Each structure stands twice: as structure tokens, then as C-alpha cells.
């Protein structure tokens, strides 16, 4: 979606390629998704929150408060249930994130709005609470960098509370759908075919993906008729149904590694 790290996660070489194409889904179609009308609607909830997570991380990467107290962001994960509860309490545009970097870790509660200029998401206001207890304001939130003013609210429906089992089921479905799209993008790659063969298993690994420093790099566990290992892939959402992979590294269980796209190696 790419999809997201928590799928909520699953996001490209130029970050806008992985976000702007889908922003209509995040907000324009959000209301329909959260009505829980069926399996695809549940996936829409997952997909929307995953896109919010990715774009918010991008927006905060250079925030002065984040850089001073958290440092370079290493993990950034939306708290799905707390964010839904915020909406249920009337804070429709407020989301909760767990963040960790090379200087410290904590929790962010942020008002996330979408821009009328380019359709991207940005943090209008928020607080960083460090694990040690200190609280810092992220910004005043009234104006985007560049001095362009934006409306302060986005109309979103009230979201019902969901029990943990239902939430977990949505996340698992979203993970599986994300993995399916990425598998389709790389299944015919000659390097993968030579070392893995016909793919028998292709699963998204959330934990290893969260540990990746690259913002759009995700990890998949892959097995086939010739071997098995993990695939680190930089994913780009091309449209609602399609994921693209711009660079990727295959690390076999025996330790051997190979670039799927030698002209565009993944670091």
C-alpha cells in the first residue's frame, strides 16, 4: 500500500509515489471502509491507517523536536486501537503513534490533516511524550511549512470500538493482501526464480519490517521449490490493486545474499 508496516504497516524512492495515488482512499473512502461492511471494508480500515502511519512518519522525519529528543526515526508504528478510540471520543483527526530512534523513544498524539495542495498528509499539531515522562509540543499546527494555510478539520465518521480479536483479524488480512501484491510483483524475477524457484510461501514479517531504517523497505519470508530466506523489498504503491518493487535483496537461509535488481541495489 504500499501497504504498511503494521499494516497498519505496510510507506518509495520518492515518497510521494507511494502515497498520493491512494490519498483518496485514505479520506475520501474512509467512511465507507469503517462501516465494517465486509471483508474488503475491513481491509480498507487497515489500508487507511497504514497510509496514515507512513505519511506521518515522513512528515515528522525532519521535525526539530523529534530530531532533538528521539533522533533518527528507527521504528514508527500507529497504535490502531488508541487511534480508533480517539475518533470514538470525538477527536476524529487525532492519531496515536509509538516512536523510537537512536536517542530515545516515546508516544506521539498528533492531529493529522490532509493538504488541499498536493493531497499529502501532514501533522498539524501534536505532543511527544517520552518514555521517561517529558512532554514536548511538536509545533503550533496552524500553518504548513511554506506559509500555506489549510482547513483545520476533515470530516470523518464516528468509528465504533472494535474488540482486539476483530482488530487482529483485520491486520492479518491486510498483511496477507500486501504480501500477495508484492509476491505478484517479484515472482517472475530471474534472481528469485533461480534461488527460490516456484514460490510456495510468501509472508509479510511485521517485526523485521519495523526494524528496517528505510521508510518504504519491508521484509517478507519466502520459500519455494529450490530454497527459502527473507526478501527485503522497497515497495511502491502503483494503484489500489498493484504494488511495485523498485529494489530488493534476497537473503537465503544459508546466508547468501543477492540483489534482485543489480542496477538498483537495496542498501
List keywords for this structure.
5-stranded antiparallel beta sheet; alpha+beta; single chain; 31% helix; 267 residues
Your description of this structure?
It contains 8 helices and 10 strands. A 5-stranded antiparallel beta sheet has the order 1-2-3-4-5. Strands 6-7-8-9-10 form a 5-stranded antiparallel beta sheet. It is globular and about 50 Å long. The chain has helices at 23-28, 30-33, 39-60, 64-69, 80-88, 164-186, 190-195, 206-211, and strands spanning 73-78, 94-101, 105-114, 121-130, 135-139, 199-205, 217-224, 228-239, 242-252, 257-259. Helix 3 (39-60) crosses helix 6 (164-186). A hairpin with a 6-residue loop joins strand 3 (105-114) and strand 4. The protein is an alpha+beta fold.
List the helices and strands and how they pair.
Layout: H1 23-28, H2 30-33, H3 39-60, H4 64-69, E1 73-78, H5 80-88, E2 94-101, E3 105-114, E4 121-130, E5 135-139, H6 164-186, H7 190-195, E6 199-205, H8 206-211, E7 217-224, E8 228-239, E9 242-252, E10 257-259
Antiparallel strand pairs: 1-2, 2-3, 3-4, 4-5, 6-7, 7-8, 8-9, 9-10
Helix pairs in contact: 3-6
